[in-house]
Amino acid sequence: MEKKYLNVVCAVIHDGDRFLCTQRLRKGPDYIAEHWEFPGGKVKEGENDYEALRRELHEEMDWNIYVGAKLGSIEHEYPDFIVRLTAYDCMAHDKDFKLLEHIDACWLRPEEFTKLNWTEADAALIKQLWK
Fold first, then answer.
1. CA distances from 121 to 35, 97, 98 (A)
2. Is the pTM of this model over 0.70?
3. pLDDT band at residue 28, thresholds of 50, 70 and 90?
4. What family does this belong to (predicted)?
5. DSSP letter (8 states) at residue 112
6. Contact by Cβ (8 Å): 51, 7
7. Integer CA distances (angstroms), 17 to 42, 61, 108, 110, in order
8. How far apart are CA 14 and CA 12, in angstroms?
């Protein structure tokens, strides 16, 4: 059986030397439920990455962001699907977001990322971006 392939985008949003990290809801497979990630979501058919990222953050956080340059991309195979995760450098004019689809959020420096239990795809992306 062929695994489902997901094209996912995420926002790397910084405030000075800290980056926004969000914790997933308690739903989905154990290997991603309640794990930490950079906010974002799936790219729908007919959308480009920028449109998808702006839509996802508006839907999940009621937050308008500016999507900047592509930072990097990885592919990761989970037991049930394969994900292509692409990160974009993003900015927001304020920190006035709501956690509509996440349990928690925090702002951390890259050296503090190890404190969190990241999804495997986000962990691989972190290794690529902060070598």
1. 11, 24, 24
2. yes
3. confident
4. Belongs to the Nudix hydrolase family.
5. G
6. no
7. 27, 22, 8, 8
8. 7
